[in-house]
Amino acid sequence: MNQVRKADPNNKTVSENRKARFSYEVLDTVEAGLVLTGTEVKSLRQGQANIQDSYASVEGGEIWLINSYLPEYLQANRFNHEPRRRRKLLLNKREMAKLSQSVDREGMTLVPLKIYFNDQGRAKLLLAVGRGKKLHDKRESEKQRDWSREKGRLLKERG
After folding, report:
1. Going from the N-terminus, what domains does the chain have, and what CATH number goes with each?
2. How far apart are CA 55 and CA 128, in angstroms?
3. What is the model's pTM?
């Protein structure tokens, strides 16, 4: 018997950085927690966030999410948060050491891929360790994407 799973309302993607996979060669991904205030969580639950221009930085043994945009929660009154504040990422020591070494030694970049709510209803960030693509690499990935699209059309036409 097949059991049909309902889509969990807590487990949903809030914001996705689709441009990151085009601009960076993603080598490894890590799930990190976010330190948020109450109004930031409510704003995320409304599905309002933007991580397009954001990045993560290692500072003082901690990893911070910089330049992410979470708009103010309208019903919060004077207790609102600052939309572009720096947010601390929650990782264990081993993961932080691994990420900081890859950034320092190998010249990698920490790029946020998406913000989502997990099964327990907690906000998580999918963080990627990536290397910036050169222009010819971007053209190559564009060619592959176009060819796969064209191949799909041809197969669909022929049945």
Report:
1. 10-132 (2.40.280.10)
2. 10
3. 0.75
